[in-house]
Amino acid sequence: MERKALGRYFNITKRLLDDRLEQGLADGIAYRCYNPGQARTETTYKELAALVNQLGNGLRKLGIQPEQRVAILQNDSIEAVVSLLGAIRIGAIPIFLNTMLKRDKLRFILEDSRAACLIVERQFLADLQEDLPTIPHLKYVVVRGADKPGQVDFEQLLSASSSALDPFNSFRDEIALWQYTSGTTGEPKGVMHTHRQIAFSASTFFNEILNLSSEDLSYCVSKLFFGYGQGNSVWGPLWHGASVVLFPGRPTPEKVVELVQTCRPTILFAAPTHYSKILHTPDLASFDSSSLRLCISAGEALPSTICDEWRERYGLEVLDGIGSTEAFHVFIANRIGQVRPGSSGKLLSGYEAKILRRDGKAVPVGKEGVLHVKGGSIATGYWNNYEKTKATFLGEWLNTSDIYRIDEDGYYWHCGRADDLFKTGGVWVSPIEVENALREHGAVMDAGVVPFVNPEKLQKAMAYVVLKAGHVGCEELVKQLKDFVKTKLEPYKRPEVVEFVDKLPRTTTGKIQRNALKERAKAHHQ
Ligand code: 3UK
Hints:
alpha/beta, single chain, binds 5'-O-[(S)-[(2-aminobenzoyl)oxy](hydroxy)phosphoryl]adenosine, Rossmann fold, nine-stranded mixed β-sheet, GMP Synthetase, Chain A, domain 3, about 30% helix
């Protein structure tokens, strides 16, 4: 699809809904919910447009104004998509909240974003109930499955509202949505994206790499609250008139395979850990993958071994590509038939990239440096975070903090991070945050956390722990510490391996020397 110049006014929901109906896709399936036992499983484009308008009208009636933030805390579902698009339809700004976040983080985001409204599924309410009345600007709580007097019920809000609604006359360059991402200390940062940035991204990766069309049915294992999941399950497919499978449950390898065999998607989006788990679950060795024409990986580097094994087993290439919340979606990717296993692929059209040394000079081909990228989907900045915005968004360039090298053929190779953050299972771990959590345990004096590469070639977290006098490192304590971190932080942040040491390597100024620990972790696992 050609990248057409957008007018001064542009609401992305018009392009994704009204234009699709005009194009003759009214009866085409937009969403199929894989939730055995639920009544409504399929939603056509026409039905989706009507639901989005109903919610937009409902939110307006409640009192939601343009530019006000609307937080969404729901499992993947048609209602979640309707919440997202309904808010944008009226010029409000939706923010998906990670359903695994602990109470303090949810509270932080609700306060930091100054959300006026929360649309929440009842199961997530219990944890938040006490906090909600004390969050200063949160006026309206809409509950899916409301069961208490005084709650605004999602379904009732829909059924009491008209299905006709013109999109709010948004400027193409005003903010359409925010996505929160982790920072080095674990404090989330709100990344702000405009209508035009979404359009740019939807017409790039999904066109150039996937050749997505209304013939496709896509399924993304990563949830809608991840930028990767949202792009793959909303922005890309609706832009191209494709259909999407949503799955509200936990995507175990068994469930993912069951879904692929039952719903028969043509494209599977996942993170390396999902591919690895399917490959390493013996019963799944011969699952029926015949509906798939493409498999996509992002979130963290895809090890070449996974790429090779997947091709051998299923005859399918996995296309690795790197994207980020700040860049909205993928900007470097492998192409069909031109995959270099272990590399992130080549730059997408419309983007420019440069790899810089610490002093800002470009590195020669083959040498490592920090990847900077430029293109029409780069975010406007972080909300309420002047310093990090200045350090990351450098004029037209985004400093990704990823270390890369480029080869002579233009393929990019990921070589790590320039900061302490790392990914495991495609999601961020801030070592400082995990170290702080460990230090709160009564037996722990000090802790240092670094990534290590496990036998499947995937990154996991390793904790080096110094115990207080009188405590002895044993298997039982390892388990206790892992469980303890799980009570403090999101479950995926708990260290996979804990090793007890007498002291941690520190600089003269008292900082943990994480590089020394990383070397040690490497040696430990060889
Ligand atoms: C790392 C990769 C090597 C890299 C994302 C696709 O992951 C996404 O967004 P996040 O903000 O994280 C971004 C960071 O994750 N990374 C992602 N993909 C790769 N490293 N190879 C890869 N293929 O450090 C990057 O800076 O969570 C991915 C689309 C949308 C997204 N938001």
